[in-house]
Amino acid sequence: MHFSIQNILFLLVAVAGFGLFAWQVRKIRANILVGRDRDMSGNINERLSKTLLVAFGQQKMFKRLTPAILHLIVYVGFIVINIEVIEILIDGLFGTHRVLQFLGPLYSALTGTNEILGALVLLAVAAFWWRRNVKGVRRFTGPEMRAWPRLDANIILYVEVILMLALFTMNTADLKLHQLEGRTLPGAFPISSLLTGLFPENTTALAVLERIGWWGHIIGILLFLNYLPSSKHFHIIMAFPNVYYSRLVPQGQFSNVDSITHEVKAMMDPSYEVPAPPVGPDGSAAAPTPFGAKDVDDLAWTNLLNAYSCTECGRCTSVCPANLTGKLLSPRKIIMDTRDRVEEKYNSPLVFSPNLYGKEAKHDSQEQLDAESHTLLRGYVTPEELWACTTCNACVEACPVNINPLESIVEMRRFLVLEESAAPNSLNVMFSNIENNGAPWAFSPSDRFNWADDLYVADKSATSVAG
Amino acid sequence: MAEQTAKRPVSVPLMADLAAKGETPEVLFWVGCAGAFDDRYKRVTRAFVRILEHVGVNYAVLGMEESCTGDPAKRAGNEFLFQMQAMQNITTLNGYGIKKVVTACPHCFNTIKNEYPALGGEYEVIHHSTFLQQLIDEGKVKAEGGESFKGRRITFHDSCYLGRANNIYEAPRAVLEVLDADLLEMKRCKTNGLCCGAGGAQMWKEPEPGKKDINIERAEEALATLDGDADVLLNLQGVESTAPVLPAGSNRGGSVIAVACPFCMTMMADGVKNKERESDVQVFDLAELIASAEGLNA
């Protein structure tokens, strides 16, 4: 071990990096918790196995094979290469060099796998970049894919390239240094051994290059870590809690609003006792919550967790029947709007505040008539988008990390109908038909059984041959 | 020499009459508003009753005591109206001690099965596709003695509230299997099925402005699948589809788009009509196909 100023420097950098990240995560946690309470406890085994399959196992990604394979490479690369980050952390703190070499053949397997994965990641990232910027996959476009989301997607790819290049610089320089000094570098380096010819023959230069690669890799990772909370790349962390807390009930089952249940029961049975409203900490009655959602804090915390898990991949929008046929609705926009709005109203990540990019870079400000209507509903999401939804669950089914845009859509519809009576007129006609006739159409309830008139069935037990 | 089958009149048993006699049916047939009022879907209701009668199922209907489940109100955001309807229906169903409900409407099915329990209505709820599958598995329905579908092309359109909403994909296909027809899958089927455009209360309103109606998009896909038209299928990327549709009567004749939902029925039939293909492509519910294949229509 050689303690040096480098170790102290490393400690400071690491503490600052992780500390800043923890601070950002706390702010985001607070953002998510402004959502309405919803009990998602219990069913731990079912939730864990779902997390294992959908988040860890990427089950739903494999509906589309090409991106699934590319993503799998980057994902496995991320996980395996991060084992090397553990080594970097130990080396950095204690002045060791390649501390895991005591693993022997296992270390060779690890470093060799890392190198091959690193090369594959570079190829996959190049393919991702080509799909996004040259081929122009349709789901990467759309009105919600404004300046910032487009830039963000490419930044992620560039950072991944830089991280891999740093890894190869470190390994190649280290390898060549050992070769020049006649020593053996523990581990296997199938890619770096091909690159040594590109590096200088000077041992000092190689030592510097090795350090540049080493520091570049770890500083890159710490910067990237702190970039995550501002980026769609946050999904690498949030996908796991999001899948864990996703709904276990059938997709067709919508929530029943409890406060309405109490009211309806009280109407039908005057002796029914409506539970007392929750009492605030100071003993006064808490402000009544509106029916449905007007703003982000009217949504459940799981809906806000959804917003922070979104990868903006557009699978939801690409299968949405309304969007496919040219309507304004885009489920991805609902989710992205939710995240933008919660950060506008509450905490914004420190490093990349949306204001740095101007409002236009993030979302289209719609109908911002006054401060009153500058909420998630109307300020970001228009009623026209909401009314285009067929509640078909295609978006829910398509999401690789179990985001549920439909829940948020229905919550906002509830606000429009129950708080503002702002349903389209034809739906109001349907409502009054149900109220008056017990059917959504204007038919008389007394005709409900007419279908059974003059009904005959062939009596096959009495078959005869005629004619 | 035509085989002529005797027919008998059906008096559909009403729950109130059975209750008056102290009887409980094995299963309550929940007809639904479309099944009771929509002229086209009344034929499905009647076909399903013919099957129930033929097999000798001990069933009953609520008749005028049935009321909308509240599905369209709930999907449109009117939770209050939904719960009023739900409580009213639950009171009726519980009053008769109903244990098992079968319905030909995926929306009624989903609502009663998934959303009524929390409001006090717990029943075994099955969709008629599953019910028909059970009858076929038990050998009670053989799809013999009626219209032959052998060699005819049939494609099944998944209803969202049956498929993605409740994971029922195989039952309707198993029912169609028995017809010995040429079953074709649309590219967007099962979990990837494309909505007909009527769910979420869209049935009762005009679509928002867009480039195309959803049911046209879906009908084009169904027709291209039945026609085996690869060009149209390739063109169906969603937004623009200017591919020509085959002129009426030019395909193999008598193809069927099978549905299992009253709203899908309306939307697909409208789509076929819009494409001027009614003469050679028909839209049928599973119950109609089975009743017809079994020779129960009289």
UniProtKB/TrEMBL annotation, chain A:
UniProtKB keywords: 4Fe-4S, Iron, Iron-sulfur, Membrane, Metal-binding, Oxidoreductase, Transmembrane, Transmembrane helix
Q: Does the keyword Transmembrane helix apply?
A: yes
* Keyword Iron (UniProt): yes
Q: Where is the 4Fe-4S ferredoxin-type domain?
A: 301-331, 379-409
Name the Pfam families for this protein.
Fer4_9
This entry's Gene Ontology molecular function terms read: 4 iron, 4 sulfur cluster binding; metal ion binding; oxidoreductase activity
GO CC terms of this entry: plasma membrane
Q: What InterPro entries does the database record attribute to this sequence?
A: 4Fe4S_Fe-S-bd, 4Fe4S_Fe_S_CS, HdrC_iron-sulfur_subunit, Helical_ferredxn, NarG-like_sf
**Which spans are transmembrane here?**
6-23, 68-90, 110-130, 151-170
Q: What is this protein called?
A: 4Fe-4S dicluster domain-containing protein
What is the native source organism of this protein? Hymenobacter fodinae
